[in-house]
Design a protein that fits this description.
By secondary structure, this protein is an alpha+beta fold. Helices cover about 40% and strands about 15% of the residues. It folds into two domains: about 100 residues, Nucleic acid-binding proteins (OB fold (Dihydrolipoamide Acetyltransferase, E2P)), CATH 2.40.50; about 190 residues, Hypothetical protein af1432 (Orthogonal Bundle), CATH 1.10.3210.
């Protein structure tokens, strides 16, 4: 089945092609009619879809993560392209070209995995270096990290995005940290490694984009602290040495405070130099990745500006290439 990638779709374009339905919601309009709100994806991005005059049987005919064939037409709505779907049906996996949908880059993941091991192995603090090796020796967990997304939407929301974000942030803190007196760069680097690792358990992997039950009920901050405690206990069993209590508390604080404010989900606000730096550098990397993604996926006709982005409250200038 031939198809046009999402990032090449234009306004008022008829289509009949395959997508991956990463989300679906059955809703009721003001007149009492039912419709299905869709999130459709391929390897180049995502787009919203609307199927009017729907019913429960159509809604139940496919599941989140399934491949579907959609017939319809694109439409600009509030400066955002969407698809008005007239017909949708489920496809078997052998009916689609998996390369059109798979965003996981195994070669890049291998390179990032090597870089991660290199940075952790270069730490001067022996306790942190040994603890890093405990994580790296868990091959099953490491494989999950390699393919995990960093988010359901917003920044690094693709398979392998979590590892990309983690390594980029570790390199960023190693560059910025030494500029400030009193900052323990090894501690800051390890905090960058730890800060989002709970997302390996929080977010559903594979074809379904969403949260696990544990992710919904507990969240990646607490999951990360729990996992850290388990691995510190494992390290103590292997070495016969107690892990420094003060160092463990600082690592826990880095995880719990990295969102920066209580209203953004941090149970504690940053109270150490390393926690302050981690919060702002993490936010920088996330915001830059999000903006780059918006620019890359923009399908507006203006060569200089993206469409207005409600989540950002602005348009973005497109860099000259």
């Amino acid at each position: 089945m031939s198809r046009t990638p999402i990032n090449q779709l234009g306004d008022n374009q008829s289509l009949d092609q395959a997508f991956q339905a990463t989300d679906k919601q059955l809703r009721v309009n003001r007149q009492g009619g039912k419709y299905i709100l869709l999130k459709l994806a391929d390897r180049t991005g995502t787009i919203s879809g609307m199927l009017w005059n729907a019913d429960e049987s159509t809604f139940e005919a496919f599941q989140r993560g399934d491949y579907v064939s959609c017939r319809g037409r694109t439409q600009l709505h509030n400066n955002q392209l969407q698809i008005i779907v007239s017909e949708i049906r489920r496809l078997d996996e052998d009916q689609v070209e998996r390369g059109d949908f798979d965003r996981f880059d195994s070669d890049q993941a291998a390179r990032l995995g090597e870089r991660l091991a290199e940075i952790l192995g270069s730490l001067q603090n022996v306790h942190l270096r040994r603890l890093g090796q405990i994580y790296l020796d868990d091959t099953e967990w490491l494989q999950r990290l390699r393919s995990a997304p960093a988010a359901v939407s917003n920044h690094h929301a693709y398979p392998g995005g979590l590892l990309r974000h983690t390594v980029d942030l570790m390199e960023l803190v190693q560059s910025v940290g030494p500029r400030y007196d009193g900052v323990d760069v090894d501690l800051l680097t390890f905090g960058a490694f730890l800060h989002d690792l709970g997302k390996v358990e929080e977010l559903a992997g594979g074809s379904e984009s969403g949260y696990t039950d544990r992710g919904q009920l507990v969240g990646h901050l607490v999951i990360g602290v729990q996992d850290l405690g388990d691995r510190i206990r494992r390290l103590a069993e292997l070495t016969g040495e107690a892990f420094p209590e003060a160092l463990q508390m600082q690592l826990e604080h880095l995880i719990l405070s990295h969102h920066g404010t209580l209203e953004f989900g941090s149970p504690k606000i940053p109270q150490t130099l390393e926690a302050i730096a981690l919060h702002h550098l993490d936010n920088l990397d996330a915001k830059m990745a999000s903006a780059q993604s918006v620019i890359a996926a923009d399908i507006g006709g203006d060569p200089n500006w993206t469409n207005y982005q409600p989540a950002l409250g602005r348009k973005l200038w497109k860099p000259r290439t």
